[in-house]
């Protein structure tokens, strides 16, 4: 940067101008003064020459050279003037200061030449004779006429030149003195001018310097101070106007920046709090920004993602393909991607649009993603459920259809066959009925829990469990199974008695179903202290029947899941009993569990929610 400070642009040129002006004035003044002095002196010398010219002419005409030399000597001494008489050939005839006979020819001297030509010669020269600077004035001598009016017998040409001279050393000394004084004055003037220039330059540059500092602060985005120069009276109108407009500009800029910041913050807040995952990438597939939801889904830090390549942040080929496609076609695209999380999968519905700037130029892609995993799972569950229901219904219906057709084909004529077939048809119809009953029960319970309409109240558990035992008694008696109930008389819990009784009945019916004859089913209910120190009412139903293989336990409470399909069908099972139990217990805010080993019976648990004391 070779720009100079303002002060250095103003100060030196001003100083130079002053210096040049002083030099010019000094030079012109002193040379004018010199000329004036010399002119004055020249005129004086000329007068002196005229005064003695005729006298000299007369003495020459009379050829009285000795007298002439004496006259020169005396007049020269009196007038402190050197007087020299030169004849036409240039020879010195007389001189007031020197011996004329010893002097060289003066015909070549410029003032003499001029005088010989009839004019008045002037010259300043160094006199070798007197060893100093002299001003010479030479006038032509007039021919002497003894008798005025008669010029007979007399030569009329000039007899020579009269030269008078004075030293100019004194004048030069005086002039030097004057020049010295002028130079001294000039130095003072220059110094004063320098100080004034410095002061003025500072006055001009100081507010500009302040403005510069303020402008630098503005450029850094610091609008805390204003120039305020226009308020003071010490600055020029131009600077004050400039400062005022810059202050106004800063105000507007600040306001705009604040507005932009506010809007950006609002946008960022909206962006961050969106439950949908939002991801923006530029045309080079580098992440511009992503919100919290997206960062959470992709398991990255949203602050570190910007400027990284998309494939570094999200390792999903489908998403990269979609971004490429949108960048190529510049058209919105709706699709889906699946993300793998260890064993499980998450499904995201993606809505991608080209991202344009204010001028409509494409600057990247914006993708909004919705987590549709739950939706997909529900769809799968529904699909499976429909398939399962159809399958469950198809088995008894196929059987009924088969036997009815057999009857119609003639079997009806044999009473024995007809009775046997009708028995089977009744059994299958009961199975159908049971499935439909259970499905209806399940949907009723689901509806209750969805609408949160379940009426829970403090109930005596022993009473409820006794009712359940009562309901199962006939079935138990059929297989000579003993049902034991162990429950404190005053055990109470927040329950819906009807639903809880149905859940326990389902468990006890299963226990009877999957126990051999003469077995035992034990129902226990008690307040138990859990690991975390909280108390919960736990109801358990234990049998000593066939038991369940370990691999079936995790899925046992799913709809239509059976550990032993053949046995379940034979027993008239629907595969929905445990699903109903699970839903009922969930309505109560509790959970279910099972413990079993194949061949050693099973224990099902209903854990009601912890009691808040
Ligand atoms: P189901 O109507 O077939 O009994 P559930 O939903 O009640 O249907 O039971 C699901 C499956 O769990 C049954 O098919 C059976 O295989 C197994 N199961 C349930 N309770 C017991 C039990 N007490 N002992 C052994 N297996 C059982």
List the helices and strands and how they pair.
Layout: H1 6-61, H2 65-79, E1 82-87, E2 92-95, H3 110-116, E3 121-127, E4 132-140, E5 160-167, H4 169-219, H5 237-273, E6 277-282, E7 287-290, H6 292-298, H7 310-313, H8 317-329, E8 333-341, E9 344-356, E10 362-371, H9 373-408, H10 415-451, E11 457-460, H11 461-478, E12 482-486, E13 492-495, H12 497-513, E14 520-529, E15 535-543, H13 565-570, H14 577-587, E16 591-596, E17 602-607
Parallel strand pairs: 12-14
Antiparallel strand pairs: 1-2, 1-5, 3-4, 4-5, 6-7, 6-10, 8-9, 9-10, 11-13, 14-15, 15-17, 16-17
The structure holds adenosine-5'-diphosphate (ADP).
Adenosine-5'-diphosphate (ADP) binds next to helix 12 and helix 14.
Q: Structural class, judged by helices and strands?
A: alpha+beta
The radius of gyration is 67 Å
Strand order of the largest sheet: 2-1-5-4-3
Sequence stretches where pLDDT stays below 50 over 5 or more residues:
150-154
Main sheet summary: 5 strands, antiparallel
List the ions, cofactors and other small molecules found in this model.
adenosine-5'-diphosphate
Strand content: 15-25%
Reported by name, the CATH topology of the largest domain is Beta-Lactamase
Shape: rod-shaped
CATH level-four homologous superfamily name of the largest domain: PAS domain
Q: How helix-rich are the residues, as a percent range? A: 40-55%
Give the number of domains. Answer: 5
Number of helices: 14
Number of DSSP E strands: 17
CATH class of the largest domain: Alpha Beta
Average pLDDT works out at: 87
Q: Which second-level CATH architecture of the largest domain applies? A: 2-Layer Sandwich
Gap from first CA to last CA: 81 Å
């Amino acid at each position: 940067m070779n720009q100079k400070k303002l002060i250095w642009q103003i100060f030196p040129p001003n100083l130079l101008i002053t210096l040049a002006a002083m030099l010019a004035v000094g030079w012109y003044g002193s040379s004018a003064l010199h000329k004036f002095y010399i002119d004055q002196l020249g005129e004086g010398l000329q007068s002196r020459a005229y005064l003695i010219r005729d006298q000299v002419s007369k003495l020459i005409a009379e050829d009285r050279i000795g007298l002439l030399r004496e006259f020169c000597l005396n007049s020269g001494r009196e007038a402190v003037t050197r007087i020299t008489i030169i004849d036409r050939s240039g020879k010195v005839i007389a001189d007031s200061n020197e011996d004329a006979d010893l002097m060289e020819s003066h015909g070549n001297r410029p003032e003499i030449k001029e005088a010989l030509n009839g004019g008045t010669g002037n010259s300043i020269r160094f006199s070798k004779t007197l060893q100093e600077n002299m001003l010479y004035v030479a006038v032509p001598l007039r021919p002497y006429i003894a008798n005025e009016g008669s010029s007979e017998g007399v030569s009329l040409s000039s007899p020579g030149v009269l030269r008078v001279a004075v030293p100019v050393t004194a004048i030069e000394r005086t002039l030097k003195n004057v020049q010295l004084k002028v130079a001294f004055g000039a130095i003072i003037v220059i110094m004063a001018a320098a100080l004034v220039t410095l002061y003025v330059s500072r006055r001009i540059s100081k507010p500009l310097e302040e403005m510069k500092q303020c402008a630098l602060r503005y450029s850094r985005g610091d609008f805390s101070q204003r120039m305020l120069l226009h308020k003071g009276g010490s600055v020029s109108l131009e600077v004050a106007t400039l400062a005022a407009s810059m202050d106004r500009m800063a105000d507007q800029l600040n306001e705009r920046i604040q507005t932009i910041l506010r809007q950006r913050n609002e946008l960022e807040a909206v962006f961050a709090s969106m439950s949908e995952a939002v991801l923006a990438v530029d045309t080079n597939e580098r992440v511009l920004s992503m919100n919290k939801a997206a960062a959470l889904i992709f398991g990255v830090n949203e602050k570190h993602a910007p400027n990284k390549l998309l494939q570094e942040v999200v390792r999903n080929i489908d998403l990269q393909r979609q971004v490429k496609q949108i960048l190529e076609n510049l058209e919105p695209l709706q699709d889906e991607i699946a993300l793998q999380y260890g064993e499980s999968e998450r499904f995201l519905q993606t809505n991608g649009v080209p991202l344009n700037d204010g001028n409509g130029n494409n600057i990247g892609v914006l993708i909004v993603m919705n987590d549709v995993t739950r939706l997909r799972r529900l769809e799968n569950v529904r699909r499976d459920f429909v398939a399962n229901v159809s399958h469950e219904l198809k088995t008894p219906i196929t059987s009924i259809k088969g036997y009815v057709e057999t009857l119609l084909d003639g079997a009806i004529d044999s009473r024995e066959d007809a009775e046997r077939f009708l028995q089977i048809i009744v059994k299958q119809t009961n199975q159908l009925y049971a499935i439909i009953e259970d499905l209806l029960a399940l949907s009723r319970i689901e509806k209750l829990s969805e609408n949160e309409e379940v009426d829970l109240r403090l109930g005596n558990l022993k009473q409820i469990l006794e009712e359940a035992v009562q309901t199962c008694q006939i079935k138990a008696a059929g297989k000579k199974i003993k049902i034991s109930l162990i429950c404190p008389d005053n055990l109470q819990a927040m329950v819906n008695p009807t639903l809880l009784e149905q859940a326990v009945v389902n468990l006890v019916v299963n226990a009877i179903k999957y126990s051999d004859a003469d077995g035992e089913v034990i129902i226990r209910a008690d307040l138990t202290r859990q690991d975390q120190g909280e108390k919960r009412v736990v109801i358990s139903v234990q049998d000593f029947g066939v038991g369940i293989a370990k691999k079936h336990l995790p899925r046992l409470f799913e709809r239509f899941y059976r550990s032993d399909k053949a046995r379940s069908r034979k027993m008239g099972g629907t595969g929905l009993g445990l699903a109903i139990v699970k839903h009922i217990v969930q309505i109560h805010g509790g959970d279910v569990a099972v413990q079993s080993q194949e061949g050693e019976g099973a224990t099902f648990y209903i854990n009601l929610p912890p009691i808040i004391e």
